[in-house]
Design the sequence.
């Protein structure tokens, strides 16, 4: 397709190139293949279960090294809280207080989420703030009928001219009610970081946020900085970045033509969390913890969460140390055949690499090069929790087009569920990806890897969206912990279910890990 001069200027202004846009269009036209599952990753076959003694050893080892390494916590935090309140927005639109009782509405609509919300309403972290605002606005609030009070409560929470929680960034929404204050998810990440992601009394955190929220994140940090630093005896260095415009992808019509807006401009869309590999690539630390903004717990559970994180970090440093030793050996000596087999066994047994069946036929020189290339990669240790029916990604052994088998985190949308064999493998999956990663992003010489070189671009997604009532095709880049890390060395470790407490709906805040008094 030929683009107009204005459209070419638009592409350049976004930091994209014409060839990049054309390659995106080709991906739409060619279609993207499903992932080819080889087997589910399960305990003793891809997922490591670490006993209590080894766990303590790994924690001690990590703690002993913290003073000598740089540590960073990376938190994707750009999401708004809108989806958390989806069922409440519907209630607010549909319900007429004068026509029926709320109980009648709940029964008629089979609105179980709404029922749970109203039963637990006084346990919500923003309950007292909302009530305070309601009494301030209406002096006779306490005399109103219960139906009216509850309806006005929802209106005060969500109304654009009221508290407007639905448009808050999720990280700044009240999450936990303590005796003397209410904590946001952002604040809880600082307390957590002090426990496991600090070094020499300092903690570095990097949040990827929406640019329009930068000021309120800054204000929140100013408000809590002194209190949190005093309580944790830790000073915090907080940085923010935004999803880069150059990672946006072009949108197409259903017949694979670029969608042109009324003003003649092309439509570009944010390309999902896979775009954040660029943000991660800009950062420099010996190890980087990755965890989503909404996955936090109240203070009484933080030490257990912290122990799990330290175990993962200890495991990463332990295996990385051996890998670095072997890399130096391969670079500067001429190892014996026996030594090369030892290195191959380490790759296979500890880093889950499936060694080529042709390896023993290679010349010694090529064996050295093969092992060096496989060892000299970023490494990630990923916590995995037992699957209790949560939607989303999981750990699998995957076979690529060249018949190479590797450990990957796969989203359900990447799997061809119409294929009986693939569906059977999916059913055998026992664990779930909670987004709980510790990453080593430097090589054996201390030089940072270029993380963009380890992405499998064929694991992008094509999704259907709408624009002013018209169907459009959108392209999402390979997910940050999916295809964006496809060519990293990977270790999966079972972690406690307590480490996974995301807040997907407002009712999740009523669960025990988000309640100070259970």
Sequence:
């Amino acid at each position: 397709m030929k683009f107009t001069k204005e459209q070419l200027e638009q592409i350049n202004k976004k930091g994209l190139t014409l060839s990049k846009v054309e390659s995106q269009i080709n991906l739409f036209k060619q279609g993207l293949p499903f992932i080819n599952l080889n087997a589910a990753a399960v305990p003793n076959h891809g997922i490591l279960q670490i006993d209590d003694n080894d766990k303590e050893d790994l924690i001690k080892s990590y703690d002993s090294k913290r003073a000598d390494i740089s540590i960073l916590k990376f938190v994707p935090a750009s999401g708004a809280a809108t989806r958390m309140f989806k069922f409440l927005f519907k209630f607010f639109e549909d319900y007429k207080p004068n026509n029926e009782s709320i109980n009648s509405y709940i029964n008629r609509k089979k609105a179980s989420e709404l029922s749970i919300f109203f039963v637990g309403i006084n346990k919500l972290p923003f309950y007292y703030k909302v009530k305070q605002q309601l009494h301030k606005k209406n002096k006779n609030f306490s005399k109103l009928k219960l139906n009216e009070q509850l309806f006005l409560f929802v209106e005060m929470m969500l109304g654009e001219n009221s508290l407007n929680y639905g448009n808050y960034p999720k990280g700044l929404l009240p999450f936990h009610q303590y005796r003397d204050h209410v904590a946001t998810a952002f604040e809880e990440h600082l307390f957590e970081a002090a426990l496991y992601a600090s070094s020499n009394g300092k903690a570095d955190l990097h949040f990827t946020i929406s640019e329009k929220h930068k000021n309120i994140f800054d204000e929140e940090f100013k408000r809590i900085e002194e209190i949190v630093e005093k309580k944790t005896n830790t000073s915090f260095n907080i940085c923010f970045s935004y999803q880069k415009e150059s990672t946006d992808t072009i949108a197409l019509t259903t017949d694979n033509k670029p969608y042109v807006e009324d003003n003649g401009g092309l439509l570009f869309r944010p390309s999902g969390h896979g775009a954040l590999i660029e943000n991660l690539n800009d950062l420099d630390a010996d190890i980087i913890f990755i965890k989503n903004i909404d996955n936090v717990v109240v203070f009484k559970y933080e030490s257990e969460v912290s122990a799990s994180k330290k175990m993962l970090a200890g495991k990463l440093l332990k295996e990385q140390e051996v890998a670095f030793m072997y890399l130096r050996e391969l670079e500067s000596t001429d190892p014996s055949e026996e030594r090369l087999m030892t290195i191959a066994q380490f790759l296979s047994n500890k880093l889950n690499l499936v060694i080529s069946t042709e390896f023993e036929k290679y010349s010694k020189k090529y064996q050295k090069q093969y092992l060096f290339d496989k060892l000299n990669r970023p490494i990630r240790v990923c916590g995995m929790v037992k699957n209790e029916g949560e939607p989303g990604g999981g750990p699998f052994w995957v076979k690529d087009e060249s018949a190479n088998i590797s450990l990957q985190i796969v989203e359900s949308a990447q799997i061809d569920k119409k294929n009986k064999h693939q569906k059977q493998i999916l059913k055998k999956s026992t664990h779930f990806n909670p987004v709980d990663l510790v990453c080593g992003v430097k090589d054996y010489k201390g030089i940072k890897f270029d993380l963009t070189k380890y992405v499998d671009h064929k694991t992008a997604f094509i999704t259907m969206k709408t624009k002013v009532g018209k169907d459009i095709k959108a392209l999402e880049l390979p997910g940050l912990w999916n295809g964006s890390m496809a060519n990293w060395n990977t270790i999966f470790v079972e972690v406690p279910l307590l480490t996974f407490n995301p807040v997907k709906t407002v009712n999740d805040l009523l669960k025990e890990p988000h309640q100070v008094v259970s």
Notes: Residues 5-81+169-317+430-514 form a domain with the Spore Coat Polysaccharide Biosynthesis Protein SpsA; Chain A fold (CATH 3.90.550.10).
